[in-house]
Specification:
This protein has twelve helices and 21 strands. The chain is an alpha/beta fold and 367 residues long. It has two domains: 128 residues, Lyase, Ornithine Decarboxylase, Chain A, domain 1 (Beta Barrel), CATH 2.40.37.20; 216 residues, TIM Barrel (Alpha-Beta Barrel), CATH 3.20.20.10.
Length: 367
């Protein structure tokens, strides 16, 4: 029985071989640069995929929430880092997790630091998040006085332990990657030089898939923390981080109508399945995902321009090539490579492998 026979509605497919190859690629790169890989699991959010990661020497992971951390608890990770400015309203939940698991959080201000210092009853590590040009969050990389304030507060409690500096250069998705990484190396190197006399064991970490995939000069940065590389997606392929053949997930969607005169195919697959991340084609049209032909051993990637040109809540409308129109009929399944695999996986809440097994996701099945 083919895995395709199990599919009746939009289903996110996972190619284990490609996923494992992506894990190995980044683990090998970290090892080559004498760095530690601490992948961000906001993309995969899966205990099974976590077990695959361990086979490539990965011992620590990153999450984006207390909820996700709780889901991944108990799997033997040396540490789980929550890479989001910590929400002080969740301190009781954090304290409970820290009673059984080594946890670290991200701090960016004195208010939250004081709250944790006065409330925690279990030890928690922390990174100070640094902003070196992205502008989303973090302490300015040259604001040594604010950094020192946070460190001084933490020194007064045994339950807050400084681990180092975390910098996410997310503007690599939009800007000059070599120039951005020059800023990243400079900022983390300067901070290490300034604060290592006080904290000789501090480490520096950076994590974004476009940069980590293509950069070969990381200076003296200690750790890599990308996430999307586990699956990759069309956005990464368009950025040059990967080839389309490196994308490990594809959405299987049923064909519900075909209009050959308009060269359009209607599928069951919309915003509640893919989210609404979008690319822009060279002609200015919108691209919400690209066609692949599903096979028993994976999928075939054509080069004919067929893509999701429009989506609403449940509907997806494809611009279809003559080849596609000649190969499919109503009731068939076709595959779509997602623009943003992290959001698509979060929408779907589970995966189906090519050998017909369901793979867990922190959010659980939603469709």
């Amino acid at each position: 029985m083919s895995y395709l026979d199990k599919i009746t509605s939009p289903t996110l497919l996972l190619d284990e071989k490609i996923c494992r190859a992506n894990l190995k690629m980044m683990a090998d790169k970290a090892q080559r640069h004498r760095m530690e890989l601490v992948p961000h699991f906001k993309t995969a959010q899966s205990r099974l995929i976590g077990s695959w990661a361990k086979e490539y020497g990965i011992k620590e992971i990153t999450t984006s929430s207390v909820k996700m951390t709780k889901y991944l608890l108990g799997d033997g990770w040396e540490n789980i880092h929550i890479a989001f400015p910590f929400n002080p309203r969740e301190v009781e939940k954090l304290d409970e997790l820290a009673s059984s698991q080594s946890i670290s959080v991200q701090l960016i201000n004195t208010e939250t630091t004081k709250h944790l210092a006065s409330t925690l009853s279990n030890p928690v590590g922390f990174f100070i998040e640094i902003d070196a040009g992205y502008g989303r969050t973090g302490v300015d990389s040259r604001d040594y006085s604010k950094i020192q304030e946070i460190l001084d507060i933490a020194k007064n409690t045994p339950n807050l332990n400084f681990k180092g500096f975390y910098l996410h250069p997310g503007h690599t998705y939009y800007g000059n990657i070599p120039a951005i990484y020059e800023e990243t190396r400079e900022a983390l190197g300067r901070l290490k030089k300034e604060f290592k006399p006080q904290f000789p064991h501090l480490v520096t970490r950076t994590g974004d898939t476009p940069g980590c995939a293509v950069v070969e000069d990381f200076g003296d940065i200690d750790q890599l923390g990308p996430g999307n590389f586990v699956f990759f997606d069309l956005m990464q392929a368009y950025l040059g981080s990967c080839a389309k053949s490196d994308i490990a997930v594809a959405m299987a969607v049923p064909v519900v109508d075909i209009k050959k005169d308009r060269k359009e195919i209607l599928v069951h697959g919309g915003g509640v399945h893919f989210a609404k991340d979008v690319l822009q084609n060279e002609d200015g049209s919108m691209n919400f995902g690209e066609l692949v032909y599903l096979k028993d051993d994976g999928w075939e990637i054509p080069n004919d321009g067929s893509h999701l040109k429009k989506i609403s809540q449940e509907h997806g409308l494809l611009k279809a090539s003559d080849e596609l129109l000649g190969r499919v009929k109503v009731g068939d399944l076709i595959g779509i490579l997602p623009v943003h695999s992290c959001m698509t996986a979060d929408c779907m809440g589970e995966y189906l492998t090519l050998d017909g097994n369901w793979v867990d996701h922190a959010e659980g099945p939603k469709n």
